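Structure tokens
________________
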Amino acid sequence: MARKGTGFFDARGHFFKSPEEATVSDLASILGKIGDGESLAPGIACTLLDRRGEIERLFAEHDAMMADYQPVGVGKITRLAPRLS
């Protein structure tokens, strides 16, 4: 008998049963292959999704710090006095 269902797809069009699985797949794809042998990217992607709130807060803090950040000495070259031997 036919049944109705809901599915979720990652950016490559692969089917997943939950939005979390599809998102983890996309995150792992962005990370690429990590490590020797089987990639660690899927596990890292799960951790990123699980800690999303903390990561978003960290990036918000970073953006706030970068808003008025001016690197010290950029565009300014200070020449040292010649050494007298």
User: Anything to note?
Assistant: The chain has a mean pLDDT of 91. The helical segments are 19-31, 41-50, 52-67. The first strand starts at residue 8 and ends at 9. Strands lie at 8-9, 15-16.
